[in-house]
Design a protein that fits this description.
The radius of gyration is 21 Å and the shape is globular. It has 459 residues and is mostly helical.
């Protein structure tokens, strides 16, 4: 349901823009507001799941997500839609780490990679059908119904979870929430996201934007210092002593930073430049997402046998290649120019995401599975939110320069899109290098000092 919501929204953006009169930066907030609240509360969600029971917190998150989806559909203004999307992110932040920690607590190490592959594959079903369903609903019913569809799914999920999932939790004696860490991380991410999205509106050198960047830096430093010195930190810095865990989180940030903004802006390109309908745009993404469904479970099983390092390296290189292909698009390109980028991107993301998840969760103790999965998904969500913001900032800046030089609106958009895609391709290459240097082989024996009960490293 979480993944469906992401992809459904992307193809509905032009319809939302037309109906509610939202600017492009407002559309970015519709997507980024959700991603930021998701990212800010992800670690708290993981900790709450470990403390109070993974099934219980999963159910609370699912209920919040379901109710806020209803309010998204009912929203009659940009402000109400963005607010409801932010609340959706809260529900997702409680749900997502609980799903991964439930799987980690349920399956032994030798089966965990395959289980995570199925998890990614099931999520990818939503990625595949989301754009098509979103297009059909937007064209034939209305964009509001892309949110209403979550309501029956959520209600069924609540019933199924109560009947099927068995409860598990961290049994450590001392538990508490890290409220100072939550506050400082939230301020840092919100200030940074606001500054990147609104910089072209207010001016990059305006007092507001410069002040927000300063607030983001100060709050970020405060967050790191707090986590280093707290007895029970939300963001367990000690986990990063394991190079596999550190590298997997870095790659999660970089792959999302490089790729997730593409879904947003390529959807706008197809509909606003090429003249695709919402249904046609949804169909256009289908090869990419079907390839993720097919490859992700295979990649999960292969990571159990072969390790994750070189699969992640190859995946990130394919992601970079797909972005370079997209950067060659023109205002009159046919779908055959889009297809190679879709195929490369789908294969690359599947080869990266499942081994990355298996590597990260195999490197943390079992009783910290909720926190570990929360940290991984936080990095991914932060990357996605900042990816949209960064691509939007580059695109807007380059577009304004092109307009000032005499280009028309379409030419200016294309110039900005190409510049943003080249930067994203470079980010993906950095991800490939990071994976090569940090992810250890599953054949490496576990260090003698590992905590009893920790999950065998299978990176």
């Amino acid at each position: 349901m979480i993944m469906l919501d992401n992809t459904v929204v992307n193809v509905a953006l032009p319809a939302i823009q037309s109906d509610l009169g939202i600017s492009v930066s407002g559309l970015e907030w519709v997507v980024t507001g959700y991603a930021l609240s998701f990212a800010v509360l992800m670690l708290t969600g993981g900790k709450l799941a470990d403390m109070h029971g993974r099934r219980r917190i999963f159910l609370v998150g699912l209920a919040i997500f379901t109710v806020s989806s209803l309010f998204c559909g009912l929203a009659g203004s940009a402000e109400l839609l963005i607010a409801a999307r932010i609340v959706q992110g809260v529900g997702s932040a409680l749900m997502m780490p609980a799903t991964l920690s439930i799987i980690t607590a349920t399956f032994p190490p030798k089966e965990r990679g395959a289980a995570l592959g199925i998890w990614v594959g099931v999520s990818s079903v939503a990625l595949a059908i989301g754009p098509l369903i979103g297009g059909l609903i937007t064209v034939h019913i209305g964009w509001n119904w892309i949110f209403y569809v979550n309501v029956p799914v959520g209600l069924l999920g609540i019933v199924a979870a109560r009947l099927i999932i068995r409860e598990s939790r961290d049994t450590s004696r001392e538990q508490r929430l890290d409220l100072p860490g939550l506050l400082t991380s939230g301020v840092a991410l919100f200030a940074l996201g606001f500054a990147l999205i609104e910089a072209n509106s207010y001016g990059w050198t305006s007092a507001l934007i410069l002040g927000l960047f300063a607030v983001a830096l100060g709050a970020g430093i405060a967050f790191v210092l707090l986590e280093l010195h707290q007895r029970l930190p939300m963001f367990d810095i000690s986990l990063f002593r394991n190079s596999t865990f550190a590298g997997a989180n870095a790659v999660a940030l970089l792959v999302a930073l490089a790729m997730l903004g593409v879904f947003f802006f390529i959807s706008l390109y197809m509909q606003n430049v090429l003249g695709y309908s919402a249904v046609q745009a949804g169909l256009a993404f289908l090869p990419m997402t079907v390839l993720i469904i097919v490859v992700a479970p295979v990649a999960g099983k292969a990571s159990d046998r072969l390790g994750s390092r070189w699969m992640m390296v190859g995946g990130m290189m394919l992601v970079s290649a797909s972005l370079l292909v997209f950067a060659q698009l023109q205002s009159d390109s046919t779908y055959w120019a889009l297809l190679p980028g879709m195929l490369l991107g789908g294969a690359g993301m599947a080869l990266t995401m499942t081994p990355m998840t298996a590597a990260a969760l195999s490197a943390v103790p079992l009783d910290k599975a909720g926190v570990g999965s929360g940290m991984l998904n936080t990095f991914r969500q932060v990357g996605g939110a900042l990816g949209i913001a960064v691509m939007g900032a580059i695109l807007a800046s380059e577009s304004q320069s092109s307009l000032a030089a005499g280009a028309n609106e379409v030419e200016a958009f294309m110039a900005g899109l190409r510049e943003a895609l080249y930067v994203s391709a470079a980010i993906a290459l950095v991800g490939a290098v990071t994976a090569a240097l940090t992810i250890r082989s599953h054949a490496r024996p576990r260090p003698a000092g590992d905590a009893p009960g920790s999950i065998a490293e299978t990176a």
